[in-house]
Amino acid sequence: MNIRSFVSAACMGMVFSIAMPAGAHGMGETVTPNFQHAIPNIPGKSLTAVVVDYAPGGVSPAHKHAKSAFIYAYVVSGAIESQVDEGPKRIYHAGESFFEAPGAIHRVSRNASDTQPAKLLAVFVVDSDDKILTTPVK
């Protein structure tokens, strides 16, 4: 697969955070940087990945991402309830994925289980100048 194919696949995508040390952003979720690199044949664009671990019942606050960000989210384990913009709330299970378009608001992002943990991989294709990738929405 060439880099354009990979970026195209990633551009279908959605979720989380800023590339910084692991930390809690909401109640019961921890975001850990996984990968960050400039895309060599697309000047001004970078690929950033983070892992979001949700404790049972864990929730992320409503948020938006950098205006340039295409986000692809893949549920690694457990089940995640998500709502982007005015779309329907949906539960995604391990092996399923969803995306978030630039400028979207991620209204609901939470572990769908009160008893089992869940894990999400979020891959951002973003302008390299965008340093703050997630901002809470009130």
Share of β-strand residues: over 45%
- Overall mean pLDDT score? 84
The parts where pLDDT drops under 50 for at least 5 residues are: 1-24
Q: Might you state the CATH topology name?
A: Jelly Rolls
Oligomeric state, counting identical vs distinct chains: single chain
Which CATH class?
Mainly Beta
**Tally of separate helices:** 1
Computed over alpha carbons, the radius of gyration is 14 Å
Write a concise synopsis of the structure shown.
By secondary structure, the chain is mostly beta strands.
What does this structure look like?
The protein is built from one helix and eleven strands, in the order H-E-E-E-E-E-E-E-E-E-E-E. It starts with a helix and ends with a strand. By secondary structure, it is mainly beta. Helices cover 7% and strands 54% of the residues. Strand 2 (27-38) and strand 3 (45-60) form a beta hairpin. Strands 1, 2, 3, 4, 5, 6, 7, 8, 9, 10 and 11 form an eleven-stranded antiparallel sheet that branches.
Give the SSE layout:
Elements: H1 3-11, E1 23-24, E2 27-38, E3 45-60, E4 63-65, E5 70-77, E6 79-84, E7 90-93, E8 97-100, E9 105-111, E10 118-127, E11 134-136
Antiparallel strand pairs: 1-2, 2-3, 3-9, 3-10, 4-9, 4-11, 5-8, 5-10, 6-7, 6-9
